[in-house]
Design a protein that fits this description.
It is built from ten helices and seven strands. It has about 280 residues and is α/β, with parallel strands linked by helices.
Length: about 280
């Protein structure tokens, strides 16, 4: 990778999507801020340039399926779904409130556009494999994308699923790993290291590549090439920065999750994004 994730500047669209994330944080006064901000460009490119879907008909049978397996980053998904018209942006103001539909983790039958209820880490991969196998059995041409994380990749179900996906040559399946190299209480390398992560996925039978997860053009170019091998599932390691877009939050684990965001912190977040 020629450009580090932290060096990437944000364009107007990436900033606007982050404003929608902040709208949700302001509405609920809580949320996984760092984990959502590292995801924005990954989801942006998927929904802008790759996935087939119909916001007016979220259950359209021919749609591509996208599962946010790292469900705690749901504010980024909610921002993109609202932007695309799956539900009114005003729902962000009711994030984590009794009269809203948007909870702290995505719920399949409650939020239009959400393909699987996630949050208990390690579940998105097995669900995605089931969907991809179903597409094959039904001779349907939809694809399945699972967006996971590095901390989540410490779950055994991820690697059991990887073995099954490779056994069945599931070229219909693409796994994207948000690799910001931090998790709730420390560096991934200190908690349970994953390196060499790219070679791990290849050794499990995936066609794998890596990309700067905040470089929109590079993400778009790589995702438009999938499947990387027509006889294998694909894994893409997206190198990202936790909290990307607000200098005070970047790589600062105190912003991993906030249960109570104050007025002062909201000002810091909003001003920090505009200063980026």
């Amino acid at each position: 990778m020629t450009t580090s994730p932290i060096a990437i500047k944000l364009d107007a669209r990436s900033k606007e999507l982050r404003r929608l994330v902040l709208r949700g944080i302001a509405g609920g006064r809580r949320g996984h801020i760092g984990s959502s901000f590292s995801l924005v460009e990954i989801l942006r490119v998927l929904y802008d340039d790759v996935l087939r879907y119909d916001p007016k008909n979220p259950s359209w049978p021919e749609r591509d399926r996208c599962i946010l397996s790292k469900g705690h980053g749901c504010l980024a998904l909610y921002a993109v779904l609202a932007d695309k018209g799956f539900f009114p942006a005003a729902e962000l103001d009711k994030f984590c409130k009794r009269d809203g539909i948007l909870g702290g983790h995505p719920e399949r039958h409650k939020v239009p556009g959400v393909e699987a209820s996630t949050g208990s880490l390690g579940h998105g991969m097995p669900i995605g494999i089931g969907m991809a196998l179903n597409a094959r059995i039904d001779k349907a041409n939809y694809r399945v994308f699972v967006v996971g994380s590095d901390g989540e990749s410490q779950e055994g179900s991820v690697w059991e699923g990887a073995l099954a996906a490779a056994k069945h040559n599931l070229a219909e399946l693409t796994v994207l790993i948000d690799y910001n190299k931090q998790q709730s209480y420390g560096l991934v390398s200190e908690v349970l290291g994953l390196e060499p992560i790219l070679e791990k996925w290849r050794s499990f039978g995936f066609a794998a590549d890596e990309v700067n997860g905040h470089d929109v053009a590079a993400l778009r170019d790589l995702l438009q090439q999938i499947p990387l091998d027509p006889a294998k599932p694909t894994a893409i390691i997206c190198h990202t920065v936790k909290g990307k877009g607000i200098k005070r939050c970047e790589q600062d684990l105190s912003w991993h999750h906030k249960t109570k965001v104050s007025d002062e912190e909201l000002v810091v977040l909003r001003e920090g994004l505009e200063e980026y």
